[in-house]
Design brief:
It is a single chain. The chain has about 240 residues and is of the alpha/beta class. It contains 8 helices and 10 strands. A 6-stranded mixed sheet has the order 7-4-3-2-1-10, with helices on both faces. It has a two-stranded antiparallel ribbon with strand order 5-6. The protein binds zinc ion (2 copies). The site of one zinc ion (ZN) has 4 residues, from loops.
Length: about 240
Amino acid sequence: MDKVAIDLHIHSALSPCGEAEMTPNNIVNMALLKGLDVIAVTDHNSAKNLPAIMAVAKKNKKALSILAGIEVTTKEEAHILAYFETLAAAMELDRILYQHLPEVLNKKELFGAQTIMDEHDQIIGEVDKLLISATDIGVSQLWELVTNLGGILVPAHIDRKSYSLIGSLGFMPPELGIKTCEVSKTETVENVLKRFRFFKEYQFIHGSDAHRLEEIAEREYFLELPDRQLQTLIRHLG
Ligand SMILES: [Zn+2]
Ligand SMILES: [Zn+2]
């Protein structure tokens, strides 16, 4: 078995709350410096920086794998991480999510810029709609959309009272077939299990939810996997 160092919850400068320093090159270089094996950049309701991040990682002789991901806000205001084997699938969910965001434009001075970059960290665009709005997609509909695209769902920071699936619904809808939940880096799995007994059936991962470079995880969160293929990792999580 391989011990794979992960951080599957990182925001780029595309998320309004992500710092401008969270560029494709900076994220990849920091993850390499920290000795991580697999990262996922999971911006709020968008995947538009993933092409650049994957292009940057490709130049690094496969030392670091990038899992395509998006942190989706459902209409219940739950944050759910969607992970895909392919960039194309993530970009398709990106396209759908944009249509399901309300017509509320981002106010840069208030929320921060939503920057799209190329593989040289050049700004090539901005997303106009505010990405931290809730979409009008319900949890079950999201599950259907993501499953059809070959992806999986991992409810984000389930220990939190707000913006988590448990905080919003109070329970885990069994029809979603969730296998893995994410716990905030400030909370322990033991505490979560004490608070919610039904969580015994699930496996857990920690993610940094980094919005700044220094917040990206160290080699501290591991998965035991038979190999380092992204396909293997996805099957393990979902
Ligand atoms: Zn979140
Ligand atoms: Zn997040």
